[in-house]
Automatic annotation (TrEMBL):
Organism lineage: Bacteria, Bacillati, Actinomycetota, Actinomycetes, Micrococcales
Record-linked PROSITE patterns: HTH_GNTR (PS50949)
Family of the protein in this entry: In the C-terminal section; belongs to the class-I pyridoxal-phosphate-dependent aminotransferase family.
Pfam families xrefs: Aminotran_1_2, GntR
One of the record's GO molecular function terms: pyridoxal phosphate binding
Protein name: DNA-binding transcriptional MocR family regulator
Source species of the chain: Janibacter alkaliphilus
Length: 465
């Protein structure tokens, strides 16, 4: 496929992806890949809500030189054999792709501006910017008052000295994995698994070891067997509204998993990314695993990002015992500190009189979107597509009819103006079929858009019969 933009002035709007599919007779995947390459080459830019536009070419800077030597220089040395670091963010990038205005985004994992507490964020940022200490270097462990707030939110008798402020969940996960394991070590992960977990593990030179789940989360028997067989010292879990299945691990299972890890002297990284996304018509999820963990087995990760804005990249790592010193050093080496402006903004936000009200409003809106999405999924994919409606989180995990390939469905869905995430994005590398699509509830402007986007899958399903 060739898109000729020769002579097109800067600011020229490209046709929609659907129109490009029709015009060139190419698949939706090919069109998306071509546009992605043009963005990487700096030829076009995507403006959310407006479309894709050409940009002015960069000014000439003389000879570009010969960079071919880098291919050999980037190869890992023999000294790292057995623990090679692998930088592959392709699956993680799937859910970070910007979409044009014509596409209903059921793929993204961050709140659409219509769901964000924008008034509170603006006011908090303004107040934070006026503080005289905002422009001074903050403590490397985080503002004491913000650590107090996170400790209170997590519970379990934690105090500020058990908490470190970090630049949101993904960075905390990557730093924690490197701090707790050595290159070449196995690390137990859920299957299916959040692609950020497997990408961070691979980048640290670790070997993800998938352990199967059931309707209650990670299965203890298989966990015990995996830890016995491999002597792995790290287990990564999302026990609350797991991504992608939405599973909530009940209290008894949480304690059983913690006890198994303790017996094997392994750490449990509790990625509690979605605790702030409880639906209004659902009971509160069980307390975090760390709240009943006197022996320091659990390292807890919490973030404000999912429930506020993708730009408020502020979170916390909590732990008990000597491991906290290791984590403090890892975060210091990786990030030095979280900017004071972000920390003060976060603190002003959660201290604002309207904060709790905004949390309740978000819960209500998530409930509405989940109900609309559930009805649309059952209408479009059949009653068997959803085992259950989740009680929290930002997505549905919908089973496809057996004859459909998830990757093909995602590609054809783009041709019908809707972006979904194919199930194999969450595979752990062992060839799991994962005949599902993940449908985001939060990246589209409204509940109506969510339902309409799901119903756009009807001709895709029909065409595969």
């Amino acid at each position: 496929m060739t898109v000729d933009l020769t002579g097109a002035p800067a600011g020229t709007r490209l046709p929609s992806q659907r129109e490009l599919v029709r015009r060139f007779g190419a698949s939706a995947t090919t069109v998306a890949q071509a546009l992605g390459q043009l963005r990487r080459d700096g030829v076009v830019e995507t403006r959310p809500g407006a479309g894709t536009f050409t940009v002015a070419p960069p000014a000439a800077t003389g000879s570009t030189g010969d960079t071919s030597w880098q291919d050999a220089a980037l190869e890992l040395t023999d000294a790292l054999a057995g623990g090679q670091r692998r930088y592959d963010g392709s699956r993680l990038a799937v859910t970070m792709t910007a979409r044009s205005a014509e596409v209903v985004d059921l793929n993204g994992g961050y709140l659409h501006p219509a769901l964000q507490p924008l008034d509170l964020l603006r006011a908090a940022t303004a107040r934070a910017a006026r503080r005289p200490d905002t422009w001074d270097r903050p403590p490397t462990t985080g503002l004491p008052e913000l650590r107090d707030w996170f400790a209170g939110e997590i519970g379990g008798g934690l105090g500020r000295h058990d908490v470190l402020v970090c630049p949101a969940g993904q960075a905390a996960l990557a730093s924690t994995l490197r701090a707790l394991a050595q290159p070449g070590d196995p690390v137990v992960v859920e299957t299916p698994s959040y692609p950020g977990t497997t990408a961070a593990a691979a980048a640290a030179g670790l070997h993800p070891l998938p352990v199967p789940m059931d309707e209650h989360g990670l299965q203890p028997t298989y966990l015990d067997e995996a830890l016995t067989r491999t002597r792995a010292r790290v287990v990564v879990l999302q026990p609350t509204f797991q991504n992608p299945t939405g599973t909530v691990m009940p209290p008894e299972r949480r304690e059983e998993v913690r006890q198994i890890a303790r017996r094997h002297e392994a750490f449990v990284i509790e990625d509690d990314f979605a605790r702030g996304l409880v639906h209004a018509d659902a009971p509160a999820p069980p307390p975090p695993m760390i709240t009943d963990d006197p022996d320091g087995t659990v390292v807890h990760i919490r973030s404000l990002t999912k429930m506020t804005s993708p730009n408020l990249r502020v979170g916390a790592v909590a732990a008990r015992g000597p491991v906290l010193a290791r984590l403090r050093t890892a975060l210091l080496v990786d990030t030095l500190f979280v900017p004071a402006l972000l920390q003060h903004t976060a603190l002003e936000l959660v201290s604002a009189p309207g904060w709790e009200r905004s949390r309740r409003q978000l819960s209500s809106r998530l409930t509405e979107r989940a109900a609309v999405a559930e009805a649309a999924v059952r209408e479009t994919l059949g009653a068997q597509a959803l085992a259950r409606r989740p009680s929290g989180g930002f997505h549905l995990w919908a089973r496809l009819p057996e004859h459909l390939d998830p990757a093909a469905v995602a590609a054809e869905a783009m041709a019908h103006g809707v972006a979904v995430t194919p199930g194999p994005t969450y595979a752990t590398g062992r060839g799991e079929p994962l005949p599902f699509v993940r449908l985001s509830l939060v990246a589209a402007p409204s509940a109506h858009d969510v339902g309409a986007g799901i119903r756009r899958l009807a001709p895709v399903v029909a065409a595969g019969e």
